[in-house]
User: Fold this.
Amino acid sequence: MIARILVLLVTLVAFANGANDNFKGVDTLHGSGALPYRGALAWATVTTLAGSLLALVVSAGLMARFSGKGLVSDAVAAQPAFVFAVAAGAAGTVLLATRFGFPISTTHALTGSLLGAGFVLAGASQISYRTLGRAFLLPLVLSPVVSLVLAAGAYLALHGLRVRAGVKEETCVCVGGVEQLAAYVPGAGAVRLAGGLTVAVDSLERCERRYAGRVWGLSVHDAVTRLHVLSGGAVGFARGLNDTPKIAALLLAAGPLGPTGGTLLVAVVMALGGVIAARQVARTLSFGITGMNHGQAFSANLVTALLVTLASPMGVPVSTTHVSCGALFGIGAASGEARWRTIAQILAAWVVTLPCGALIAAAAAILHT
Assistant:
């Protein structure tokens, strides 16, 4: 009976993760107009599932790290009460953030939950703070900073190449049934027509910025869009590879499912969570952080996919959320289109994530005992 309850709780963590995280990577596809919401979500689901399946063979390090062993003693990490508390803390934190549309880190929520459960069941003196700082907190703090710098640098480099190649960016609007070219006004949700008239856009989703011209006989816009779609898929793949074993580790500790069965269950439920409940966080990610064109979005995805994919087989617990949002922060800062109020709200949610997970997990551990 206890084992079934634990499996249900961990399944809830996987569902919450899918709802909050599955759109990361394809958020740029939706935000730049490359794909509609449903198309972007379908691409995220397929690529995340693919990454989750590969996690069966290359992510043993992450599964071991998020079992709690090394942070607390093996005896404590194996207790049903410990697994129950960690799952409750992570699920409660991520579901709460998803309800209000904040893209937070499941990795961060799990880390806080491991800590809160450890405080209650092992005692503060039995926590390995060296492991906490080196193996958990350091990657979580550094990864968004690294992605911000790399994404801003990648965007500026690609932007310079585009300018030197003479490729211009344009926005198309229809006025009175006549198509006219217009210049996008960063941060204003508006376009300026050739005659100087500024026209407000109905919604940001309807304003697609595109590239004019051809290079080597190929449409620049079509080529960059295809690269952008592939990069969004790469982020989804990397996220499945990195997040699935962290959650499956709890199922392994719970007992009834082995690594293969636990990973498969987590993969399927994560996909369902994204399909059913991703829309609110998707809007924040796609339109709340920064305006973007396909080249800017491609730069952000390229950096995110690279960092998260490299971290997974090494067992480094980076957060796809922190890396992805950090890349978008960097693009917004470099392009001058960052929406700082939304960014500040996201950063505040990140600060609260770990203590929130710790408090919920500690309360769950006390109730269980």
About this structure: The two ends are 16 Å apart (CA to CA). The chain has two domains: 2-162+222-368, 168-212. The first strand starts at residue 169 and ends at 175.
